[in-house]
Structure formats: structure tokens, C-alpha cells
Specification:
126 residues; 3 strands
């Protein structure tokens, strides 16, 4: 694959993760990735995923849509702070994914305590 095509495909993969980042900036990042000899030997999609791996220390959570994460956490029962639970969701792109949710609470406008579930990790089920 030639340099220009590789960079365009890599930038496209990066944009799937960072939808609000200017596409020109993503092309610059992809150009930097092309400069890495190891990443250049990979497919553009794989290179982008490898480069993003440290950003996704929460497994593949960052690759799920907000709607998928929200749907998975809908209906979780009340529990003490710090409680973790795992929920299997089915996504269009990745198939079955196991999402870990953690119960937390915080002050709402400094007055009332508000309890909520937050997604903290996700992994594809094989």
C-alpha cells in the first residue's frame, strides 16, 4: 500500500475513535504513525488500534458507542458504592462484549448525593 493511501486509511480509523477531532489533525497523526517502521508494516487499521491501546487502558471500552454503554447499564439494581457488576451486551461491530460497571456516588450541585453506575472496562467475548 502506498504512503498516501495508508495514511488516509489510518486517519479514517482514528476518526472512528475521535469523531470530534479535526480530520486534518488526524491525518498528521497518521503521518507520524507511518514514520514508525513497526506500525508501517501493519494494516492502517491495526496500526491505529495498536497506537490507541495505551489510551484504551479500560480494555475496548473506548471503542463502544455511548448508546451501547448506556443500554448495557440500564436497569442495574441499586448497590453500595464500589460494587462492580458485569453485563454482556451485543454490539453491531464487535459482537458479544462484557462490560464492567462500577457503582459510584457524588454530590449533585453540592447538595444531594446522586448514585450512578459508570462503565469502567470492556472486553470482547470470544
Amino acid at each position: 500500500m502506498d504512503r498516501q493511501t495508508w495514511i488516509a486509511a489510518c486517519a479514517h480509523q482514528l476518526q472512528r475513535r475521535w469523531k470530534t477531532v479535526d480530520p486534518e489533525q488526524l491525518e498528521e497523526v497518521a503521518g507520524d504513525l507511518w514514520g514508525d517502521i513497526l506500525l508501517r508494516t501493519m494494516t492502517p487499521s491495526r496500526a491505529a488500534d495498536e497506537w490507541l491501546e495505551p489510551v484504551t487502558a479500560n480494555g475496548m471500552l473506548g471503542r463502544l458507542s455511548a448508546d451501547e454503554i448506556s443500554a448495557g447499564g440500564a436497569g442495574l439494581a441499586d448497590a453500595p458504592d464500589g460494587t462492580e457488576t458485569r453485563v454482556e451486551i451485543v454490539t453491531e461491530m464487535f459482537g458479544r462484549v462484557l462490560v464492567t460497571y462500577r457503582r459510584q456516588s457524588g454530590l449533585h450541585r453540592g447538595k444531594r448525593t446522586h448514585a450512578f453506575w459508570t462503565a469502567c472496562h470492556a472486553e470482547v467475548m470470544r
